[in-house]
Design a protein that fits this description.
2 copies of one chain form a homodimer. By secondary structure, chain A is α/β, with parallel strands linked by helices. Chain A has one domain: Carbamate kinase (3-Layer(aba) Sandwich), CATH 3.40.1160.10. Helices cover about 35% and strands about 25% of the residues of chain A. Chain A has 9 helices and 14 strands. In chain A, strands 5-8-2-1-11-13-14-12 form an 8-stranded mixed beta sheet, sandwiched between helices. The two termini of chain A are about 20 Å apart. Chains A and B meet through helix 4, strand 5 and helix 5 of A and helix 4, strand 5 and helix 5 of B.
Chain lengths: ~260, ~260
């Protein structure tokens, strides 16, 4: 099977023009088939402030009212997505920018919750890989904004980590998929205060050991659980590490590699 | 050759939710291969006002400074484009939203002008039909926002009429192309005050006659000249008419059909 990299890039890189530019250069240089999934960074929050649209955050999750959905659609699927595509083209990487409505790629439903109304937040139901596979086979790189749709005409705001994971899982039938979560940390750290204490490899046994010793910080647990869920669903490996070390992450010489064996 | 419709939709329809919805229903019902090209409507202007970004218009053309480019990229390629795609999906039309950077589809350069600096306005150099043809052959409908790129990483604001015309011309080698300019008027009118005075067919001879009698209003002349240029470049026919009559326009039973014979 051909190799495919599904790479999630964190918001802090999006916010930093120079870091983004060097990341995209490294990304463009990956010879295998690849998908980039981006979040939003601070741009959407800043635009909401400028437009006096109050942003509600409950338990770390943004409540997406109609005006906020409009903003994230503009910023994520418009400004950020198209600028990334233009920069990749400048780096001789033929890319196409998509959201989940394009080619009916990512079907979601408005989140149902007994108490909370998260607004126009979408939970993913299904990945339709027809378009993605067709484009990847033509050596076109995909750039996904974290916006999905419900097939009834409604766009929905969806977590970018989830989109990366679902795409990786959905495409693992057809490709040997490596899922990369790139962010501002060097990887999963043994000592949170020491960026050099990166754990290079974690398997389920070691993960249980680390958790029982409370070595995994709370914020990392959902990422790790997602990583193992992706591996269970057919993804070959998951790598977590610093976006500024992308080439090394892809080679497996930096960051934390999570495997199922 | 298979038929292809390239349909430009005017800003006044974009601004009217009900009209847009009924237009998209009629558009989705077209069985042949199709491309929709949309402009921006008043949304971008309104957003610029809300953000206190002054809009300069010289000789009917918006000057696109860096902040305005950001706004049109957000509004055209993000909000409008993705909402149109989501609505088409709801009408069982598998669509994909693109700008000229996607798949390197539309290459442009920043407009050069001896006196004026139009800012980030792009004049089209070339259409790359590889991606479009690939998608059209899979029966995927394309929705183009009027944003192009220069292959150096710069997005550019480009006239939507021009994009429709260039796509129609570029694809006329491979398809029997009908280019439709749909707007708020019923077509080319013999009497500007009478919406029923639509001229059903115009050929070059009749056009010269109408112009010599000053029957063509000034605003329509560039549209007509563009139409004849498209026909000269291989487009099969050009139809100008009311967006609310799309099915009839496509059947040739409403609007003005411009032909080269």
């Amino acid at each position: 099977m051909a190799k495919l990299y599904v790479i999630k890039i964190g918001g802090n890189i999006i916010d930093d023009e120079k870091k983004l530019s060097s990341f995209l250069k490294a990304f463009a240089a990956i010879h295998d088939k690849k998908i980039l999934v981006h979040g939003g960074g601070k741009l959407a929050t800043r635009l909401a402030e400028q437009l006096n649209i109050p942003q509600q955050v409950v338990e770390g999750r943004r409540i997406t009212d109609a005006e906020t959905l409009k903003i994230v659609t503009m910023v994520y699927a418009g400004y950020i997505n198209k600028n990334i595509v233009a920069q990749l083209q400048a780096n001789n990487c033929n890319a196409i920018g998509l959201c989940g409505a394009d080619g009916d790629s990512i079907l979601a439903h408005k989140r149902k919750h007994a108490v909370m109304d998260y607004g126009f937040v979408g939970d993913v139901d299904a990945i339709n890989t027809d378009l993605a596979t067709n484009l990847l086979e033509k050596n076109i790189t995909l750039v996904f904004a974290p916006i999905t749709h419900d097939q009834q005409g409604q766009l929905l705001n969806t977590n970018a980590d989830t989109i990366a994971q679902e795409l990786a899982k959905g495409l693992s039938d057809q490709y040997e998929v490596t899922l990369v979560y790139s962010f501002e940390k060097s990887g999963v750290l043994l000592d949170i205060n020491n960026e050099k204490s990166v754990i290079s490899k974690i398997d389920p046994l070691y993960y249980r050991e680390l958790r029982s010793k409370e070595k995994i910080i709370a914020g990392m647990i959902p990422k790790m659980d997602n990583a193992f869920a992706a591996l269970d669903a057919g993804v070959n490996k998951v790598i977590i590490g610093n976006a500024q070390e992308l080439s090394k992450l892809v080679q497996g010489t930096a960051g934390t590699t999570i495997v199922n064996e």
